[in-house]
Design a protein that fits this description.
Chain A contains 24 helices and five strands. Chain A is α+β, with helices and mostly antiparallel strands and about 600 residues long. The longest helix of chain A has about 40 residues. Classes of the chains: A alpha+beta (about 600), B mainly alpha (about 55).
Chain lengths: ~600, ~55
């Protein structure tokens, strides 16, 4: 395949320059106003661009760009429904409906972390510990997704082994997050956010331009519908510009349930209960700052998720038109008029002699859907004449069927080398801004929500030590997961964490903001049900996750799901079951238990005090 | 329309742009609408937040 690899001195200079610039901005900020809290203490307002881009840079990571961009390359533009939810729910709804009540409740109760907010609202140490424990245990999974996203791209871009790229990525991350000093510097986040914006604008422009324009690009992708690989067609894939087939009770509808429940709903709704994003609302100066942030935040998210989802899908059209030429023997004609066929890929084993390419996963000859552009008579290894065809294929073929590889493979093959470097910096920026806040949240969950609550010692030196240790442990766990689990993990890990947070926290969080009748027992019960049902579903029902974990095989004697004989159930995401049950539990138990005392409720829902 | 035949995917494509446009309008219309004051409680919260940050 064409493309470029190996690290040159220019790459090293540019990356070092970027890291030094980040450190310089952090140092500048450290001397003066560095965090949202500083703006508040000083009575000043952060510029809405700084506030919104800083929030957005925390929200968007390599998981969205490489992971979900790659999923779009596999499943198509139906993923744009996730962008719609990211903007409509993650920005518009979150900023306008949840932002101000969260800020006010947090300030009334003196809460500084998400578990502390829940614990204080429901006057429950147990709730704070429960939430802190869940974050400490499961957030490293999301961190691993972000880390894998950056690592996969670096390995492809610079032509180094995944392990080497992971080590370098982990060292940079460790240097960034362990000292803790840069965690809240909004200028650094904003600088990183702006690099991401520039990279995405160029990527979108380049992709549409190289395919002849917006309509032409979409049409070219639409015309490739019959080149969807057969295993994806069997799941209900109807082309990259079409929704998957909808229905219930047959394997041909599995893709719809995966795309809509796990990817679109799981992540689109899950963002509302992300601990590291909820705390951002508490650091906002006023409702006005939130209102102003909506505009910039929405445009930022449109670029950050809309671009990779569109480009990921369009990469199929780009590879079919401009990708490296592949050769092989026709296995099955799909549409002879268009030159579409299933081709058994071949490689030249000796001059003039061709042999089949073996798929390392299946140990069978590799077969790919192709757009045929030429024929030539050759001989196989045994000297038998055959008609060798040449042509190009959708991106999933070049990425060897791994969604995580689609965006890196496209950038490497299609875009100029200098852009690959800029894109790498954008990914580094996206990863750093998200991971600094992830590890900060892991640290505070361990120190403030677990250690201080369990020991009763507040603000003590050991608590700081516990935070630092928790960050190091979280980092090591994330690196270990990235190292151990390979292949289409980025989007899956992200979706698991987002869905788990939604089912566990969303009813208690939103109910706590708006419903005076919500009780401690209701919140605790709904959190237990949400987490319990989610974990049960992930361990025993959802085939992809359960099969990978392995417990279900022990229980069922080798099946991938307890419901393996019931089509579509193993594709349904836990959020579809766990969130409604969690909401129901929250409402019923709250109504059946004694309300919180009036004095506490008056404090929670008090209007803003005078200056 | 614009090369996307499936109305649901087209809705998502145009919907993203439409929701972003609505958000921009909302931000512009309400840019000075809400009260913008820092209360004693807000400042006390921020001082504690800064103390917690500095400790780390």
């Amino acid at each position: 395949m064409t493309g470029h690899s190996a690290v040159g001195w220019v790459d090293i200079v540019v990356i070092l320059g970027y890291l030094l610039m980040t450190a310089y901005l952090g140092w500048l900020g450290y001397r003066g106003t560095r965090s949202a809290a500083d703006f508040l203490v000083g009575g000043r307002s952060a510029h809405p661009v700084i506030m919104a881009v800083s929030y957005g840079a925390t929200f968007i990571s390599t998981a969205a760009i490489v992971g979900f961009g790659g999923v779009a390359g596999l499943f198509g533009m139906s993923l744009l429904w996730l962008t719609l939810l990211n903007i409509g729910v993650g920005i518009l709804l979150a900023f306008t409906l949840l932002g101000e009540p969260t800020r006010r409740l947090g300030h009334h109760l003196g809460a500084h972390t998400f578990p502390e907010l829940l614990g204080a609202r429901y006057q429950s140490k147990g709730i704070q510990i429960f939430a802190g424990l869940l974050i400490f245990l499961f957030m490293p999974l999301y961190s691993a997704a972000v880390m894998t996203g950056g690592t996969v791209f670096a390995a492809t871009q610079f032509g180094v082994d995944f392990e080497v790229a992971l080590l370098v990525f982990a060292l940079i991350t460790g240097a960034y997050v362990i000292p803790g000093g840069l965690k809240a510097v909004m200028y650094t986040d904003t600088f990183q956010g702006l690099i991401m914006v520039l990279a995405m604008i160029f990527l979108l422009w380049f992709t549409y331009t190289s395919l002849g324009g917006v309509t032409e690009a979409h049409q070219a992708l639409t015309d490739l519908a019959d080149l969807v690989p057969p295993p994806l067609q069997a799941m209900g894939h109807q082309g990259w510009t079409a929704m998957p087939a909808f229905g219930w009770g047959a394997p041909g509808y599995d893709l719809w349930w995966t795309v809509v429940t796990a990817i679109i709903l799981g992540v689109g709704i899950g963002v509302l209960a992300q601990p590291q994003l909820v705390v951002r609302f508490m650091t906002v100066r006023s409702r006005r700052e939130l209102d102003r942030g909506v505009a910039i935040g929405a445009v930022f998210i449109l670029l950050m998720t809309g671009t990779p989802f569109t480009v990921g899908s369009l990469s199929n059209a780009w590879f079919a038109q401009h990708g490296p030429v592949l050769k092989g023997q026709v296995v099955k004609e799909i549409d002879p008029a268009k030159g579409h066929a299933l081709v058994g890929l071949m490689k030249e084993s000796a001059p003039g002699r061709w042999e089949p390419v073996i798929n390392p996963k299946t140990q069978q000859p590799a077969v790919a859907p192709m757009l045929i552009s030429g024929h030539e008579p050759v001989q196989d290894a045994a000297g038998v004449s055959l008609d060798l065809v040449s042509g190009r294929a959708p991106s999933v073929v070049y990425a060897k069927g791994d969604a995580d590889q689609i965006i890196p493979t496209f950038i490497n093959a299609a875009l100029p080398r200098w852009f690959g470097l800029i894109f790498f910096l954008a990914l580094l920026a996206a990863a750093m801004s998200t991971m600094s806040s992830q590890f900060h949240t892991i640290g505070t969950a361990a120190g403030r929500d677990l250690y201080e609550r369990l020991t009763g010692r507040h603000g003590a030196e050991p608590s700081v030590l516990v935070m630092r240790i928790a960050i190091v442990v979280g980092l090591l766990v994330a690196v270990s997961i990235s190292y151990t689990v390979r292949g289409e993990v980025i989007a899956r890990f992200t979706a698991i964490f987002f869905g788990l947070c939604a089912a566990t926290f969303l009813p208690a969080y939103v109910g706590g903001l708006f419903w005076r009748r919500a009780t401690r027992a209701g919140a605790l019960a709904s959190m237990a049900v949400g987490m319990g049902v989610s974990l049960f579903w992930l361990l025993l029902i959802k085939a992809k996750e359960a099969g990978a974990i392995g417990l279900v095989q022990l229980v069922t004697g080798g099946k991938q799901s307890l419901l393996a004989g019931y089509p579509n159930w193993p594709s349904v995401d836990p959020i579809i079951i766990a969130l409604p049950l969690s909401i129901l539990t929250f409402v019923l138990v709250s109504l059946m238990t004694k309300p919180a005392d009036a004095q506490h409720l008056a404090r929670c829902f008090a209007p803003a005090q005078a200056r | 329309m614009i090369g996307i035949p499936d109305p649901l995917v087209l809705t998502a494509y145009l919907g993203c742009i439409a929701v972003a446009a609505v958000s921009v309008l909302y931000g512009l219309i309400r840019r000075n609408a809400a009260i913008d004051e820092v209360t004693r409680e807000d400042r006390a919260w921020a001082i504690e937040e800064k103390r917690v940050e500095d400790e780390r």
